[in-house]
Amino acid sequence: MTDTAPPARPISGQVTLPDGRVELAPGTPQPSGPYANQDLLPVPVAGRTWTTYNFSALWVGMAHNTASWTLASGLIAVGMDWKQAVFTIALANLIVLVPMLLTGHAGPKYGIPFPVFARASFGVRGANLPAVVRALVACGWFGIQTWIGGEAIYFLAGKLIGDGWRNAGHIGGHAWTMWLSFAVFWAIQVAIIHRGMETIRRFENWAAPFVLVGALVMLWWMSSKAGGVGPLFDQPSKLGWGGGFWKLFWPSLMGMIGFWSTLSLNIPDFTRYGRSQRAQTWGQALGLPTTMTLFAFLSVLVTSGSQAVYGEPVWDPVQLAAKTDNAAGLLYALVTVLVATLSVNIAANLVSPAFDFSNVAPRKVSFRTGALITAVLAVLICPWKLYSDPQGYIFTWLGLVGGLLGTVAGILVADYWLLRRTRLDLGDLYRPGGRYWYAGGWNWRAVVAFLAGGVLAIGGAGLEPLTDGRPIPALAPLADYGWAVGLGTSLVLYLALTLASGRRAGG
Q1: 301-343 pLDDT tens trace
Q2: CA 277 to CA 95: how far, in whole Å?
Q3: Contact partners, residue 378, CB within 8 Å, separation at least 6
């Protein structure tokens, strides 16, 4: 097989409907072999049923979560005022929406998940590179969110049981009851994901409004403690709008983009169930930037209020809720945290890596097995260390994630939109020796673009509090712009390498 299969060959074995959606032609055998299983096969058009509301509810459920809350409250904790924090988050989500919609397009059109979509650019085997990178990032996120949910159970049980629970003996720096709470929440999530995607869709539909009401209740509680909403708006910025703010703004913006850079890659895992392009486009446009900005607004006001009430900002909502003496209020607040954390963690951090790990060995790893692998690795990553400090959480963890995944997004967008004009051959995405086989199943151009973009994006990043120093100090000036540097570098380099090889646009 040649290194670059001629893309101009006619595509057979698939049909294009009047609305632009594509599926395998009637009577065409389903893809089989070592690179296919039931979870990775294209969803038939009849099975693509998600509406605009389903996608909006998905985003409301994912955006209204404790980690999103700590994004905005963390910016208050490092010195911004409410206007600066909301501005930073709103802009970041408008920016990340663009690659989200571009990569999401392949879902409703072809019914394929992210790791299969990545085969078009990286190769049938090479797609395991971005899939595993994305999956490992999701493991970190799953661990962080599970730790947050475990905290909520720990504090809730502590209020109900008393000092014997709260003051239990410590193991590894935390009470053994905290570790037990972490394990219980871990098990709940694995049980839900085991029931499949339809259960997740139904859960997201009712979780979204429940969490929003919970956030409004927290705002009411904090404003009453502060003596009205005035003190919530009056907390000044420690940075002003001069050089101090802008020095913090750029790495903060990249971190906020990095928060959803994971979903900007694997959003086809969800949009593959979309009824139409309109459903996924409007659902995401209405669901992501609006709800993230609203939730950021609520969280920064509550955090500013905590600064006025307690003398310092309390950026962790679980720790803040634990300060109330009202048992009913605490119960409602912590149940809200649990529902919010379940909502985002299952949708964003178990579904996607489950498909990604399944792609590595389709015959041996099912969707459910991939989810279990994710859950186990999430514990081994030690998420309690990642979440222990807002500086490390926003600037180290999110900065590294955004820079690395931005490089993959650049390659996907360049290949699917600029080179192929959104034309794919469904059968060849699963077939050894087809047009996406390249050289031994790998497209070296995508690998080179990924490595080059990744080095420039994160090579100069600081790794505190995990470790001191920077891997490549000379690249430090680029570190504050990691996501943009990674995406731009990989997109341009992949285009240049592909066009230089004489490859034509098409399927």
Answers
A1: 777 777 777 777 676 777 777 777 666 777 777 777 777 777 7
A2: 20
A3: 139, 140, 142, 143, 146, 186, 349
What distance in Å separates the CA atoms of residue 505 and residue 19, rounded to the nearest whole number?
Answer: 22
Give the separation between CA 168 and CA 171, rounded to whole angstroms.
10
Least confident of 222-231, 432-441, 456-465: 222-231
Query: By the 8 A CB rule, do 454 and 403 touch?
Result: yes
Whether the bond into 465 is cis, omega within 30 of 0: yes
Structure confidence at residue 250 (pLDDT): 86
> In the predicted model, what is the mean pLDDT of residues 35-62?
88
pLDDT of 505? 44
Distance CA 208, CA 64 (A): 7
224 membership: H or E segment, kind and range? helix 197-226
For the chain, what is the radius of gyration of the CA atoms? 23
Distance separating the N- and C-terminal Cα atoms of the chain:
17
Task: Work out whether strand 170-171 and strand 174-175 pair parallel, antiparallel, or are unpaired.
Answer: antiparallel
CA atoms within 13 A on the CB side of 319: 13
How far from 118 is each of 98, 124, 370, CA to CA, in Å? Answer: 18, 8, 18
Task: Please report, for residues 227, 302, 303, 313, the alpha-carbon distance to residue 310 in angstroms, rounded to integers and kept in the order given.
Answer: 13, 12, 10, 7
- In this structure, the number of other CB atoms found within 10 A of the CB of residue 45 comes to 17
Q: How many CA atoms lie within 13 A of 73 on its CB side?
A: 27
Tally Cβ neighbours within 10 Å of residue 293. 20
Tokens read off for 351: 């579904």
- Model pLDDT for residues 164-198, shown as the tens digit of each residue: 888 888 888 889 999 999 999 888 888 777 665 55
* List of domains in the chain: 42-505 (1.10.4160.10)
- pTM given for the model: 0.82
Query: What's the full length of the chain, in residues?
Result: 507
Computed over every residue of the chain, the mean pLDDT equals 82
pLDDT value for 458 = 86
Which CA distances in Å does 116 have to 41, 107, 110, 187? 9, 10, 10, 29
